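This protein record is not my work; I was only asked to verify it. Take the sequence as given and treat only the tokens as open to question. I have pasted the whole thing underneath without changing anything:
***
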Amino acid sequence: MCRWAAYLGKEIFIEEVVIVPGHSLVHQSQEAEEAKTAINADGFGLAWYDHRAEPGLYRDVLPAWSDPNLRAIARQVKSGLFLAHVRASTGSATSRDNCHPFVHKGWSFMHNGQIGGFDQFRKKADMLIPEALYGERRGATDSEVLFLLMQAGIEAGQDAVQALSGAVRVLEDLSKAHGGTPHMRLSAAFSDGTALWAARYASDAHAPSVYYRWSHTRRGWAVVSEPLEHGEGDWTELPAGHAAKFVGDRVEILRFTPSAPR
């Protein structure tokens, strides 16, 4: 299972989340504590917002701990909104196109979890992506399909949480009909360049972890798979079946129930 971290607030160097903390994202790529596997070595990625509406994107297939370019970028680039991800593949190939985050126009998205038996219904899932968005399907992951179906919902006028909820429901239903268990496990973070969202959900009792914390020193939110320092007691765990929207210094907690009766 992958690990990820996101930040929204006053501009900081990306290394302050990704590299420097005692249990930073790079540290988690070797020693994750709340995942099925401790090692997340199947690539990494960064998406960050600065002067343009669309995010910058850097992804590679090396383990995060062994890429000097990641350290150089994280040390030099400042941003008030960024997403970072280290990948442990659940079956698809290790390639740049399969690394998170995924971006489309001004949106960025990253995911930890799995959609049970995806390889058994991948073609059916791909065919649900609208023609106008199918050109954005570059890799082979279930996560990218999830993102593009979410984008379809947004372009149809849904808000971000509704759009993700609808995409999760469709893919969970496909897993129940054609795949296997667990049908859906998800923690995700996504942004439109202004706000930051996170969601946590599972079709069973094992939703991947999500934590968030407001830093008065940085004047910003850190939203993560695992707390960035050992011994810090002021992280809040996002409950399973919920989403959070972060804007400025505010957080709004929302129900996230894709499997609710229609």
In short: The first strand starts at residue 3 and ends at 13. Residues 157 and 163 are 9 Å apart (CA to CA). The mean pLDDT is 94.
